[in-house]
């Protein structure tokens, strides 16, 4: 596929900077390089044992105290990602611009209080003051970061914001969360009493700086990727219910996002939150069959959960970072990338990017 001709693209929201913090690396470039190399961040939890008496396996940020939990742990993951994303734009003329942050957070589950959004807003205010503007929180689990992306793009296109920081953060490392996962038969383990079809819990954060293309140009910032489309939907047939999901919600989210695909082009790169659970694979299989004409090969996806574990609400922004890095570094398969996510409560979301691939 030829390199995209950027000047011919109509005005879109663009990604001008990004940051990440994962068990594989403390910045976006190290994390992306580790995923590309297939490096695993899985370790034995220092004290949590499963029902078979074996140490639980997880992908844990090794520089964080294992006792750090709740909103404090999320902040310790999120703030370095935000700082990295803001660093390249700190010298640009952003001060007079209208700015906000759209933040993807975990959905309700053991290990986090219902007041988590309020707690995170307070920590953002304490750490950054008014520099980030207002904060909108999306407590939707896996799809949260891509829901935040759609909201940010809408605000930028409506002209109500000049800059928006799209971020996501999550952690399954709290003992209550790990016990809950095992109780739901979702914790992966290799023993005869364990669930081989569960997932490895992970944690991480990512942040992307979005602007309208004209504003980026006026600020002297080079687009790293264009956001061509976003899509969201709800799936009624969810996990942990007596129903069979055939990907209707995810298909609708795909189709909404793929409406921005330029004529004559196909998706070359797919990033997703497949984590080993069969229902996710089945859902994607049905969706891929319905939308296969839009893909070079829908089966050629990248699922980083096999490296940094399931990172839930952090996944969408992290996957967009991976797609953007692959374009910037020249190892993407083409110029069009799709990231998608599927939440347990039914939220489905997808984002289409044109990446700055260089041959």
What's the short story on this structure?
The protein has 359 residues and is an alpha/beta fold. The chain has helices at 28-37, 70-86, 116-128, 144-158, 175-183, 213-218, 248-258, 278-291, 305-308, 315-329, and strands at 13-21, 42-49, 55-59, 99-105, 134-139, 163-171, 203-212, 225-234, 269-272, 301-302, 336-342, 347-355. The chain has a 10-stranded mixed sheet with strand order 5-4-6-7-1-8-12-11-9-10, with helices on both faces.
Radius of gyration: 19 Å
| CATH third-tier fold name of the largest domain | Peroxisomal Thiolase, Chain A, domain 1
Give the overall shape, derived from the CA principal axes. globular
Helix content: 25-40%
Q: How would you state the average pLDDT, rounded? A: 93
Query: Can you tell me the CATH architecture of the largest domain?
Result: 3-Layer(aba) Sandwich
Counting DSSP H or I runs of 4 or more residues, the number of helices is 10
Following the backbone from N to C, one meets helices and strands in this order, namely EHEEHEHEHEHEHEHEHEHHEE
Main beta sheet strand tally, sense and closure: 10 strands, mixed
What class would the helix/strand composition place it in? alpha/beta
Classified by CATH, the class of the largest domain is Alpha Beta
Assembly annotation:
single chain
Low-confidence parts = none
| End-to-end CA span | 10 Å
Number of domains: 2
Beta content comes to 15-25%
Organism: Pseudorhodoferax soli
GO molecular function: 3-oxoacyl-[acyl-carrier-protein] synthase activity
Protein name: 3-oxoacyl-[acyl-carrier-protein] synthase-1
Keywords: Transferase
């Amino acid at each position: 596929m030829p390199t995209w001709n950027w000047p011919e693209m109509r005005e879109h929201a663009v990604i001008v900077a990004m940051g990440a913090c994962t068990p594989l690396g403390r910045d976006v470039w190290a994390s992306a390089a580790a995923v590309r190399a297939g490096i695993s961040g899985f370790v034995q939890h220092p004290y949590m044992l499963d029902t078979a008496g074996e140490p639980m396996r997880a992908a844990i940020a090794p520089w964080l105290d294992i006792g750090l939990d709740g909103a404090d742990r999320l902040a310790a993951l999120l703030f370095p990602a935000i700082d990295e994303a803001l660093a390249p734009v700190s010298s640009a003329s952003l001060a007079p611009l209208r700015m906000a942050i759209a933040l993807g957070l975990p959905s309700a589950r053991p290990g986090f209080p219902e007041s988590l959004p309020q707690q995170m807003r307070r920590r953002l205010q304490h750490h950054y003051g008014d520099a980030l503007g207002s904060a909108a929180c999306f407590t939707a689990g896996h799809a949260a970061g891509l829901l935040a992306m759609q909201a940010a793009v809408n605000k930028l296109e409506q002209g109500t914001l000049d800059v928006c920081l799209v971020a996501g953060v999550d952690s399954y490392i709290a003992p209550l969360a790990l016990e809950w996962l095992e109780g739901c038969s979702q914790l992966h383990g290799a023993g005869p009493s364990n669930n081989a079809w569960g997932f490895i819990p992970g944690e991480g954060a990512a942040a992307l700086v979005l602007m309208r293309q004209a504003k980026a140009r006026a600020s002297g910032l080079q687009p790293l990727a264009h956001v061509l489309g976003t899509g969201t939907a709800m799936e009624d047939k969810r996990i942990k219910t007596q129903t069979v999901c055939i990907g209707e919600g995810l298909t609708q989210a795909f189709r909404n996002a793929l409406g921005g695909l330029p004529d004559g082009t196909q998706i070359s790169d797919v990033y997703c939150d497949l984590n080993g659970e069969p229902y996710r694979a089945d859902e994607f299989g049905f969706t891929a069959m319905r939308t296969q004409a839009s893909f070079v090969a829908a089966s050629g996806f990248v699922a980083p959960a096999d490296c940094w574990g399931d990172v839930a609400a952090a996944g969408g922004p992290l996957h967009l970072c991976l797609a953007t890095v692959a374009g910037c570094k020249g190892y993407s398969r083409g110029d069009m990338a799709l990231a998608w996510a599927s939440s347990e409560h039914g939220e489905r979301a997808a984002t289409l990017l044109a990446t700055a691939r260089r041959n």
